[in-house]
Specification:
Elements: H1 2-13, H2 20-26, H3 31-60, E1 64-65, E2 68-69, H4 73-121, H5 125-147, H6 156-187, H7 189-202, H8 207-221, H9 233-259, H10 263-271, H11 276-314, H12 319-329, H13 334-362, H14 365-371
Antiparallel strand pairs: 1-2
Helix pairs in contact: 1-2, 1-14, 2-3, 4-5, 4-13, 6-7, 6-9, 6-11, 6-12, 8-9, 8-11, 9-11, 11-12, 11-13, 12-13
Length: 373
């Protein structure tokens, strides 16, 4: 039973408490109670979702728009399969293009080697120079052919990964700024009083207000040649906008966590005569991690919501741009594809939240107590 208890605690820490009654049911631990919990946590949500789908279908067929009737769940699922098929076809085309280029490059290298052999066998200096030039031309052509890439437009799956890279870049930038500022605010009341008005002013600002300012500044400072730049201007603008809108929960929670550390910890640090850095790394940060991660979880959720609007305006090739392009397209499948994007955004947001819950659980005292059992 101790194994079941440990698994149950781990599931709760990972935000997967819905699996706990399944483990207990398999272990024959109060079967009736576990069946009741399963009915409440799994069966009831499934029934509610099915009812939602039926209600959606009934409403959709009775609402007409300029693009036709609203898409039904079946039509949305069909467009999801179409988008996946387009992605696979695009990848197959790119793979075939690369394979064909590789074969052409090998043929050029083979012909170049033949000219190298002719250079060794001929005695005429003019002929040798001619063969050597032909060999060099063929080798250069082989190298350029092998390195040539097919400029395929990004698919829906590519745009998902672009959005994920953008939101994590913005989230990491926000964390690098917010955590040190939050620690300083928690340790120094004067610094907190100085920063607090700025936090209260800038925290409610919409991403639609930040983005034009960010785009202007990035356009003026980020002057790297696009052909050699690591990141596009649209990516940088979107990531910075995400950071500006998502750093506040982390900053506030970190400051609160540091300022409310148990005084006993501080007294222990004084008794041990720890220097400032040791006190920070061994007392302040470990004691603040649970509440700090709660702020990081909120920040990531805010960043994911902000990202879609930022990508729409900055034209970063992610999910936001996909939704905007579908809206501009105006075809009969427009609404269905937008609904696919809506469900994708929601599911990814849910998974990101689960990820932060797991990380939050890993730094909690309960996890470390559980791991020792």
């Amino acid at each position: 039973m101790s194994v079941v208890n440990r698994l149950s605690r781990w599931f709760r820490l990972a935000g997967l408490s819905v699996l706990e009654p399944i483990i207990r049911l398999l272990a024959c631990d109060q079967p009736r109670v576990q069946i009741g919990i399963l009915l409440q946590t799994i069966v009831a949500p499934i029934i509610a979702f099915i009812m939602f789908l039926f209600l959606w279908h009934g409403v959709a067929v009775n609402i007409r728009t300029n693009y036709g009737t609203l898409p039904t769940p079946v039509q949305v699922f069909g467009q999801a399969k179409v988008l996946w098929a387009e992605h696979r076809q695009s990848r197959a085309t790119v793979k075939k293009f690369s394979s064909d280029n590789q074969k052409r490059a090998e043929a050029f290298f083979s012909r170049a080697n033949n000219f190298d052999e002719l250079v060794k066998t001929t005695n005429d200096p003019l002929e040798r120079e001619k063969f050597r030039r032909n060999s060099e031309i063929l080798r250069q052509r082989a190298i350029s052919t092998a390195s040539e890439k097919l400029a395929a437009p990004p698919t829906f799956i590519d745009q998902i990964f672009t959005s994920l890279k953008t939101v994590f870049a913005g989230f990491l930038l926000a964390s690098v700024i917010a955590i040190p500022l939050g620690i300083l605010c928690g340790l120094n009341r004067v610094f907190l009083a100085a920063v607090n008005p700025l936090v209260q002013i800038f925290k409610p600002v919409s991403p639609l207000a930040w983005l034009p300012i960010v785009m202007i500044i990035v356009g003026a400072l980020y002057t790297t040649d696009p052909s050699v730049a690591w990141f596009s201007k649209s990516f940088v603008s979107s990531a910075i906008t995400v950071a500006l809108c998502s750093l506040w929960p982390t900053l506030v929670n970190t400051a609160l966590a540091v300022s409310t550390i148990d005084q006993d910890y501080i007294n222990v640090a004084r008794m041990l005569r720890l220097n400032w850095f040791s006190r920070l790394t061994k007392i302040v940060i470990p004691a603040s991690l649970p509440l700090m991660f709660a702020g990081l979880r909120i920040s990531l959720g805010v960043g994911w919501m902000v990202l879609i609007a930022a990508e729409m305006l900055a034209q970063n090739p992610g999910l936001g741009k996909f939704v905007w392009d579908m809206f501009q397209n105006g075809s009969s499948q427009t609404l269905a594809k937008i609904m696919v994007a809506v469900f994708t955004i929601g599911i990814i947001g849910f998974l990101l939240d689960r990820l932060m819950i797991i990380l939050h659980g890993l730094v909690s005292f309960e996890y470390h107590n559980t791991s020792r059992m």
